[in-house]
Amino acid sequence: MPEDLEYTQDDLAGLIPSKEFFVGIDSDGCVFDTMEIKQKECFHPRIISHWGLEGVEKELRETAEFVSLYSKWRGSNRFIALVKVFELMKERASLAESSVTIPELPALKAFIASNLPLGNPALKAEVERTGDAELASLLQWSEDVNADIAETAKNIPPFRFAAECIKRIAAHSDAICVSQTPEEALVREWSEHDLVRYVKVIAGQELGRKSEHLDLAAGGKYPSEKVLMIGDAPGDRDAARATDALFFPINPGHEVASWELFHNEAFDRFLAGDYAGEYEQRLVDEFEALLPEIPLWDK
Ligand SMILES: [Mg+2]
After folding, report:
1. What distance in angstroms lies between residue 9's CA and the mean position of ligand 1's atoms?
2. Does 181 lie in the same domain as 146?
3. Distance 62 CA to ligand 1 centre (A)
4. 184 within domain boundaries
5. Most buried residue, 58, 117, 164, 262, by CB count within 10 Å?
6. Domain interval for residue 119
7. Do 76 and 180 lie in a common domain?
8. Number of continuous H segments (helices) and E segments (strands) in the chain
9. Are residues 191 and 235 located together in one domain of the fold?
10. pLDDT at position 96, please?
């Protein structure tokens, strides 16, 4: 684990229950309205400039917005999302005649398959171990994105009701932040709004996948009906499912209404043991209807 990280996997594994309940909270697009600015102003322009895709900018932006914001891949780890964007770009009929080459990125695919944490520290270690030029270039892109985010995504407050909910969550449960964002950005954003005090660990991409965060922090420590994951993406739902936790969706585009529902009703139901089943399923169905799998341009 790199030395400049404040939190480690040992903090997750060493978490000792002090409350009856456990809640994992995603950050981007869930607590903070940071998804659009980070994706549209930082990630997507850097994909275009780094891989020389200026000739297909319109399609690249449309594809990247679909993957990272408006589809079932919303909230995916940046490296997984990048592979998906290029995969969909290759399938786009309108680009068949284009002279622009969409990159294959075989070394990235191997990195993803390696089960290493999909963050810059593990990627940097792989660059040093293998000397691979593609991975070195990928690391540069990822570092450039982080620098852009630090410069651009500032002073973005939590969604209305979110901070109040986090305080209530912390009063009744052991809470952690569960994210695929780099820790440095998470600590900056949660500190900026004085939310760090309400969570025991801030787990970013360097500490592994979201299901690993939940498993390390809560696995075997709480009854599964007392573990809840809150998030705005299918990956949050999947992490909850993989660890037998319950899931509360923050609906993309309707975040404030979701937090208000959590505040006025859903959290009380969770605490009362009355959340699982029909109630949770109805919320998950509404959430899933908002995030399609088939791109608009294929219809
Ligand atoms: Mg999110």
Report:
1. 20
2. no
3. 20
4. yes
5. 262
6. 35-152
7. no
8. 15, 5
9. yes
10. 76
Number of domains making up the chain: 2
Residue 28, domain CATH: 3.40.50.1000
- Residues in the chain, total: 299
Q: How far is the CA of 221 from the centre of ligand 1 (A)?
A: 25
Work out the average pLDDT over 51-62: 96
Alpha-carbon distance values, 124 to 38, 82, 141, 197, 203 (Å): 22, 18, 12, 31, 19
Ion ligand 1 neighbours, Cβ < 5 Å? 26, 28-30, 75, 232-233
Taking phi first (over 0 means left), then psi (-120 to 50 degrees means alpha), and beta for anything else, what does residue 253 get? left
The one-letter amino acid code at 286 reads: E
pLDDT above 70 covers a percentage of the chain that reads 98
For residue 77, the CA-to-ligand 1 centroid distance in Å is 10
With beta carbons less than 8 A apart as the criterion, state whether 191 and 154 touch: no
**pLDDT grade, residue 1 (50/70/90)?**
very low
pTM: 0.88
CA–centroid distance, 28 to ligand 1, in Å, is 4
Distance from C-alpha of 206 to C-alpha of 266, rounded to nearest angstrom: 31
Same domain? 135 vs 248:
no
Are 26 and 55 in the same domain? Answer: no
Domain identity same for 72 and 218: no
Domain membership flag for residue 235 = yes
The answer on 44 and 17 residing in a single domain is no
In terms of domains, do 87 and 208 share one? no
In-domain check, residue 226: yes
Average pLDDT in the 203-217 region? 96
Measure 74 CA to ligand 1 centroid, in angstroms. Answer: 8
What is the structure's pLDDT at 3?
47
